[in-house]
Here is the input.
Amino acid sequence: MINIALFGPPGSGKGTQSKLILEKYGLTYISTGDILRQEIAEATPLGLAVKSIIERGALASDEIIMQVIESHINTDALSKGILFDGFPRTNAQCYMLEDLLGKMDTALNCMIFLDVPEAELCRRMLERARTSGRSDDNIDVINRRLEEYHQKTLPVIDFYEERGKIFHIDGMNSVEEIFSKITDVISKSL
Ligand code: ADP
Here is the structure.
């Protein structure tokens, strides 16, 4: 299996690159953000529990993310592997992922970090706000999401740095250039 985690601040281009990675490698896609938005749209108990948290730009609790991951991971032996987008996002979630993949007798090949300066992130998210319809794409909530990222998500980098599994990619290049670097990283990590 090829298991990849795509990591980066909100607005760094993870969604765009995910589509390209999925097309090329035929992986199963797990985006915790997409799953949570789906749960909210369907007004499930989990969706109702996270709605206001997401709308104010905070992270969902690790317990909720645990439920999301456990109910969406298909331990199907035929799967070529999994692309994780937006997970793990806290230190506790890193251990959750290790455990989960361990039980499936596999491991994470690499974490790809899309690095983009903050001013550009704000510009992109405000631009996206005009078309996305996402209630968390507005300036106050964007600032809160960036704060959460600095406080809770940046430590994830250290976790994978220590394990030699993180690869930094400059997210200011073109979509094609970034994707080509990502494919190089994946080939090296196989
Ligand atoms: P972005 O990367 O642009 O912030 P996502 O779609 O990945 O967007 O996530 C949207 C929101 O969903 C986050 O701001 C957070 O509230 C919640 N969320 C998604 N994934 C996680 C996670 N792994 N842990 C906690 N909260 C999460």
Q: What stands out?
A: Residues 2-12+19-189 form a domain with the Rossmann fold fold (CATH 3.40.50.300). The radius of gyration is 16 Å. The chain is about 60% helix and 15% strand.
